[in-house]
Structures are given as structure tokens and as C-alpha cells.
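Reply to dn_fold:

You asked what the input looked like. This is it:
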Amino acid sequence: MKSIKFFKFATLIVCAVFAVAFASCSDDDNTPAIKFSPSTVSVAVGGTQSVTVAGGDGTYTAKSSDDKTATVTVDKATITVTGVKAGKATVLVTDSKKVTGSLSVTVIDGVVVDKDKTSIAVGKEDVITISGGAAPYTAASKDDKIATATIKDAKLTIKGVKEGSTTVTITDKNQKTATVAVTVTK
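and this is what came back:
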């Protein structure tokens, strides 16, 4: 009779240990993945681009894969990428729990626009920031009947004229260029 009670007690202890073990194996770490806005960076040599970091636990460090191409600094949930020389690099961002995210960086020795495509309605405008290269800049729309382009103070203003698609080319004084794809909707 004592051995049956002992066996029941031992079985109960083993079940309790397994229950605790399985409960502790649950995914307590619900730390979200690290994400970036914008999700990729194009920056001119000597220029900077700020990127908002989300996810992780909010305590970030960042390292560039090639400090001779791009450097990076961290201020809370913002990283700032600085272009050093033309090329590509990857910025690895890590939080205090070792959750990581990587950001692709392209450094351009020439004209850089803050977005390379836009969609606007007929009669509406979009303003795109130009950096890099050497001012003054000029802009030319491939089809002025679809969209027009003007530049003032390193700001490119594209205005939708009629429905369709075209491109706008920005040229600096050294004949370096950047292109923006434009879609005009009703």
C-alpha cells in the first residue's frame, strides 16, 4: 500500500515538474522585429538621411558594414546615416535583447532625390527634396502634357496635368542626374 502511495506521489511530482517546464518554455519574449522607415536609404556623398526605427525593445545600437562608405549614429528611435563615398553598405541595428534588423544603404556621388517615384492626381502637386550633386539644378519632364516640373531651393515640384505616366529628370551643373517616375491619376 505504501508503494502505491509513493508511486502516486512520485507521479504527481513528475507531472508538476513537466507542467512548470512546459509553462516556462512559452514564448515570453514577444519583442517585435526591428523595422525602418524608410525601409532603404539613398544618400549623397556628404549628405545625411534620418531613419525612424520601430520594434525591438527601444534601446538601439547601430553599426555600418563599411564606415568608409556610410557612417551611422543613434538618437533614441532615430538613426542618422551619413554618406562618405559612393557605394553600398548595410546598417545593422540591435536592441538590448539582441533583436536585429538590417537597413540597405546606397551612397551616390551625384544627385539624390528623397523619393524616386510619385503618384499624384490631375491638378495636384508633389514636392521632392533634392540633395547631393552641385547646384544649380534643372528639371525636365519627358512629357509636359502629363506632368510639369519646376525647381526652387533644391525642391522639385511636380504638377499633374493629365492622366498618364512620365519621368522627370533632374540634372546638376556637372551633368549628374536623378530620375523620378511620375504617375498622374484622375
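The longest helix spans residues 2-24.
Hope that clears it up.
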